[in-house]
Amino acid sequence: MNRFMFVFMFIFAATWLPSTAPADEPAIPGVTITPDVVYGHKDGMALTYDVFRPENAGDRPGPCLLLIVSGGWVSQWMPPAAMLPFTKPFLDRGYTVCAVRHGSSPKYLIPEIVADVRSALEHVTDHAAEHHIDRNRLGIFGFSAGGHLSLMLGTTTNAAARGRDDKPRVAAVAAVFPPTDLTPYLDPAAGYLEKFPALKFPRENGDSYSPLKQVSDDDAPSLMVHGDKDELVPLWHSEKIRDALRASDVAADLVVIEGAGHGFDAAGNETMFRAMLEWFDTHLAASN
To answer: Is residue 24 part of a domain?
Structure first.
């Protein structure tokens, strides 16, 4: 398991879920789950997401969050019960959560992975009515590589949707310790290409897959959460994209977890979730 995925799994499982329920558990109290919704195929394999919905949400369309399940651009499947650490804080607040899995490294590289999550967003939007989702109140969040992919959607989707009601739009993003500029990682001398094979795409295309280089005035309001001692993805990644978004008159904020590296302790996780919930509550609030 690479370092990105280890951090992604560890910081939540240790804090939020005392035990993992078996994969064949018939139900999770208070939550309706639609597992393995197929949003596409590649190389004979299905691309899927799971839909988690609070049972008390009713039939009225409500806000939805896409969780991009990715660490080191590897998207690991796990039974729905094991996803509760990632979804429970948002389900408790009344959000539907779609846990999106993409084609994983090393088979697929970042350009293909970005295409996958775009397809997932389109599928959720097109099938919003089936899951009682308000397609105008879609948020996206992720951790590390998942944060990178969340910001890629947040900085590129709305421009493509301009003037078109049939295209998805992103209303808010929350990204935790996200790489926002891939340039340092694409340098062969830096030593990241073997650790993270998803980066083995043409270096000259790096800007196209760096959220920092895609910022414009129609981007989604974005929150970053980052540790100030992160050596794998330094704090400047979040600082720079916050500043760039604000310079484009897009709402942006950064919560810094002091003393934290690429992963938080229980107190840091609590601060992170509180900030994310407040951000989504603000930017996905109903207009009426």
So the answer is: no
